[in-house]
């Protein structure tokens, strides 16, 4: 039986308090009589509408791939508000200035990652988006934001179909392919040789 207490919660609390730590009740609480009456339940609370940050996370999550190059990818996404404290304050201020210039709200920014690996290699795809801001204007600061400690000042270039990526050396033979698409900035880091199939499949 499922029920909802609308009155007399103090009685319920007293019954719960009667239980001993040993899970035995020395003086059992007995129901001496019952009655059924119709009551009008208070209305369920109206859920609050999603915030700009929640919408940004949902929209970016929907764009993240679930598989790539034969790997099943696990996704995680955050609003910028959640992760901003761990980022370089100077870069956060730079992004705030970009948002202000575009008449956008930095609270509408989100970052996400989809990754998978096995004994043969891995695929890691990250993305960032800021509503109403072109990805090209975000590319440089977001690259510095998400690749801390990496020199992003002089990237190489590589073209895949109609997309040209900035190729950033991560050391140890790994590179990050970074490119803008609409309001998105994409990062692809992988050991897969056919990186083109991954890059051209992203929205």
3D architecture notes:
- With 203 residues, the chain is of the alpha+beta class.
- It has six helices and nine strands.
- A seven-stranded antiparallel β-sheet has the order 3-4-5-9-8-7-6.
- A hairpin with a 2-residue loop joins strand 1 and strand 2.
- Please summarize the sheet with the most strands: 7 strands, antiparallel
- Which secondary-structure class do the elements indicate? alpha+beta
- The level of helicity is 25-40%
Give me the strand/helix succession: HHEEEHHEEHEEEEH
| Total helical elements | 6
Number of E-type strands: 9
Q: Please, what is the average pLDDT?
A: 91
- Strand order in space, largest sheet: 3-4-5-9-8-7-6
Summarize the structure.
With 203 residues, this protein is of the alpha+beta class.
Name some characteristics of this structure.
203 residues, alpha+beta, 7-stranded antiparallel sheet, two-stranded antiparallel sheet
């Amino acid at each position: 039986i499922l029920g909802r207490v609308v009155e007399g919660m103090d009685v319920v609390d007293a019954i719960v308090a009667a239980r001993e730590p040993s899970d035995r009740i020395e003086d059992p609480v007995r129901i001496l009589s019952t009655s059924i009456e119709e009551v009008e339940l208070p209305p369920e609370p109206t859920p609050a509408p999603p915030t700009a940050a929640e919408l940004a996370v949902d929209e970016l999550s929907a764009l993240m791939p679930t598989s790539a190059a034969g790997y099943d990818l696990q996704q995680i996404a955050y609003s910028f508000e959640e992760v901003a404290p761990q980022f370089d304050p100077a870069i956060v201020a730079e992004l705030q200035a970009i948002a202000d210039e575009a008449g956008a709200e930095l609270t509408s920014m989100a970052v996400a990652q989809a990754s998978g690996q096995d004994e043969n290699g891995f695929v890691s795809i990250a993305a960032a988006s800021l509503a109403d801001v072109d990805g090209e204007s975000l590319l440089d600061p977001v690259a510095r934001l998400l690749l801390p400690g990496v020199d992003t000042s002089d990237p190489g270039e590589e073209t895949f179909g109609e997309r040209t990526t900035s190729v950033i050396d991560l050391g140890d033979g790994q590179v990050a392919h970074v490119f803008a698409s609409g309001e998105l900035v994409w990062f692809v880091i992988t050991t897969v040789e056919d990186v083109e199939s991954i890059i051209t499949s992203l929205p």
